[in-house]
Each structure stands twice: as C-alpha cells, then as structure tokens.
Predict the structure.
Amino acid sequence: MTKFGSRGQKILKFIHLVMVCLWTGGAVALNLMILLLGPATSGEELYGYNMAAILVDDAVLIPGAMGCLITGILISGLTPWGFFKHKWVTIKYILTVFCILFGTFVLGPTVNDQPQITKEFGLSAISNSTYMANWLNSVLGGIFQMLAFMFMILISILKPWRKSGSAKDAAA
Ligand code: HEM
C-alpha cells in the first residue's frame, strides 16, 4: 500500500491528537458534570443537568472516540507503523475498541436514561434506585475509561516492548 510522506504523516498525527483531545476532554467534562454538578434544587434543574451530560456525550465524546479509531486505522494503513507490527499499537486497538463498545452498550444508557426518569419523578429522581444505579455506574465506568485513556497516552509516548531500533526504522 502507498505510504504517506513525512508531511502527510504529521497531518494525520495532528488530526489523531485532536481526536484524542476530544475523547479524553469529553470524558473528563462528562465525569466532572456527573460527579460535581448540583445539588439540584428542582426537577427542571436536574433535567437540565441530565440533558447537558447527553450533549457533551453526543457532541464531543462520541465523535472523539470515532475519530480516534478512524485516524488510528488511517495511521496504520498509510504510514509505516502498520496494524499489528508493534505490541503497543495492537494493545491500543484492543483497548480503543473495548472502550467504544463499553461506552456504547454500558455507559451510554446510564447517561441517556436519566432525563426520562427525571421527567417522571422530578427532583425525587435522586432517590430512585435506577437513577442512582445509573449514576454510580457512570462514575465507576468513567473512572475506568479515564485510566484506560491515561494508559493509552502513556504507551503512545513510550512506545514500549519493541525490538531495539525496529519502530524507529519502521516509522522512518
Ligand atoms: C485504533 C486506535 C489507535 C491506533 C491504531 C493508534 C495508533 C497510533 C500510532 C501508530 C501513533 C504514532 C503516530 C506517529 O508518531 O506518527 C499514535 C500516536 C498517538 N496516539 Fe494513538 N492510536 C489509537 C488510539 C489512540 C487513543 C485512544 C489515544 C488516547 C486516548 C491515543 C493517543 C495517542 C498519542 C498521545 C499519540 C502521540 C504519541 C507521540 O507522538 O509521542 N491513540 N497512535
């Protein structure tokens, strides 16, 4: 496959890092909102918090996650880094896909279901068992995702577990 030159590789990496910022920044904002916004003094206020969390999820975090995966695939295909030549890249594929699936099927519903409960119960949603279980799962899942992001950023910088010189040669 034709590979990008150094300029193309830098542009791809730039876009990749913008997407990383969106995904991690969106996750930090969402976690802080879920943890620290409030206490709400009315059902309307709580509903507003719920909707704001969905906005950050849909408009920042999800596009960032998709962008990371797409730019990661492009970097693999269009630069000498390749798909599974390096252990740290393979681990990023596994973790990225896992975080996207976990975010879609486990964390997403814990954010998206809240407004409906608040609509029904008003401010007393905060003593509703489903609402609180969603809240707790969001916090715990959010912490897990942040740790996964920190780990991926770290291995991207360190590029560990490679035979000496091989990654440099491959990326040159
Ligand atoms: C399918 C998923 C991903 C793949 C295949 C992938 C692959 C890569 C590759 C090959 C590079 C080196 C690019 C270069 O130096 O030219 C890179 C850079 C980087 N990636 Fe990813 N990545 C993925 C997802 C992520 C995620 C989810 C994060 C963070 C949460 C991340 C953070 C970074 C960072 C911080 C760099 C820059 C490292 C440096 O230049 O020192 N990547 N990625």
Notes: Residues 9, 13, 16, 20, 23-24, 68-69, 72, 75-76, 79, 81, 89, 92-93, 96, 149, 152-153, 156-157 surround protoporphyrin IX containing FE (CB under 6 Å).
